[in-house]
Amino acid sequence: MLSAVLRSKIDALWNKLYANGLSNPLTAIDQLSYLLFIKRLDEEDRTRQQAARFRNERYTSLFAGRDELRWSEFCHLDPEAMLPHVRDKVFPFIKSLGGKDEPYARHMKDAVFLLPTPALLDGAIKSIDAIYEEIERERRDGGHTFHDLQGDVYEYLLSELSTSGKNGQFRTPRHIIAMICALVDPDLRDEICDPACGTGGFLVGAYQYILCKHTSAAERWTDESGIERGLLGDQIADESAWQRLRERTFYGFDIDPIMVRIGLMNLMLHGIERPNLENAATLSKHFKEEARYDIVLANPPFKGSLDASSVDAGLGLSTRKTELLFVSRIMKLLRNGGRAGVIVPDGVLFGSSKAHTDLRKQLIANCELEAVVSMPGGVFRPYAGVSTAVLVFTKAGKTEHVWFYDMTDDGFSLDDKRQKVAENDIPDILRRWKGRDSERDIDRTAKSFFIPLAEIKANSFDLSINRYRQRVHEEVKHDPPKDLIKRLRDLEAAISKELGELEGMLG
Questions:
Q1: Helix or strand holding residue 207 (H, E)
Q2: Is the peptide bond before 452 cis (omega within 30 degrees of 0)?
Q3: For residues 479 and 327, what is the distance between their CA atoms, to the nearest angstrom?
């Protein structure tokens, strides 16, 4: 949770960008990511230099002989001199960096510097410095970690995408991501993938969930959505485990190179030092990864329709609909025993086309389908009102029963404002999920219940909760017809009397 001071500084930065013509939040965040990377590069290089001196080791600086390209050097220039310096010298320098040690720089090939005026660049740099000064002050005074605050600042920047809905780029609500991570339960040594990663929210959520699992009880807390949190990871004692977690655990793909850069910056600022994100069309026949990951978490694009010639025939579906193809791709990405949590539009659950039915057959034949959590239509407002569900499944398992849950509230109003409300099913979902094995005979009028595979097959593999849930109809008692007729006649007499009085007043 950011302080009011940090939020006001970030809002002021946004206002500078908007006032100077960068009205598309996606473009603005991309440009800010370049600046943040330049600042981060300078600070990390100085930290490595100091560590090498302390250990009496040799270290070659990234800026060797070119200190004028450091953030800490050019930020003091006059604005009129700063703009051409950053645009023509610093920006080409970071685009020339490469190799495995700088994942963000590898994706800078097609980047374009768009900050148009000296005043805007100078104002943005001063704002970023002020934000980082406040992060350091709050870290020092409040006991927060630098990575937590830095990551929260970037998340707050990204929240502008939620209010804009431009270019079809939307962020999955963070409390929904946290819920899905708790359902799928990733852990240390898992390799975790999002094949449509966008800003990297699912990968950040998985990282934070793993940290919470390995944080001592005294350092955990419950957030406003009823989800347990803990970011210390103090029970991860092995340095090699930390290195693996931050460098060889998180993998993502996105078709949009701008989203890859934004996602990379998001992960790095949350403490994932070497994220593995790539620009790739994961539904294409040119995408070759298979049986690679222990965990897949995703909210893939809905309502997309691909060129039939580009679709990977190995996905085994005669369709161009992305919401179907992505589920098939996720199954292929998982190793045997790997687990997935994926958001799908309701149509995937009950669509009657051959492709819809074939996908559900694939899912049940090749996996243990463990859960279908139905979510209300307002979860993705203000930019989408479609009803969705979460599928949880394990590759190569055997489906015998499927656990259904009817979520009606997620802790926020289901209109465009999405304001905090008291009604929230998420704590109940997680509580029931953990104790689900003891509830096999639960009543179908309840919020959650199991359905046997035989019944699902008998219903054409329909996975919509409304197919199986039994509604409780309350008996409504009506007055006898004679009493109703009497009241109507009394009302008619009263109206007639009043009309007569009105006529008398008119003469």
A1: helix 201-213
A2: no
A3: 53
Burial class from Cβ neighbours inside 10 Å (0-12, 13-18, 19+) for residue 280 reads: middle
In angstroms, the CA 109 to CA 184 distance is 36
Residue 230 near residue 212, CB atoms below 8 Å: yes
**Is the pTM for the entire model greater than 0.85?**
yes
Query: What tokens does 13 get?
Result: 């930065």
State the virtual CA torsion across 286, 281, 32, 90 in degrees, nearest 10. 10
Residue that is written with structure tokens 């590898």 in the block: 106
The DSSP result for 368-429, as a single string, is: EEEEEEEE-GGGGTTT----EEEEEEEET---SEEEEEE---EEE-SSTT--EEEEE-HHHH
* 368 φ/ψ angles, rounded to the nearest 5 degrees: -90, 105
Contact call for residues 179 and 299 (beta carbons, < 8 A)? no
Q: What is the pLDDT of residues 418-469, one digit of tens each?
A: 888 999 999 999 999 998 887 766 788 889 999 999 999 999 999 999 999 8
How many C-beta atoms surround the C-beta of residue 381 within 10 A? 20
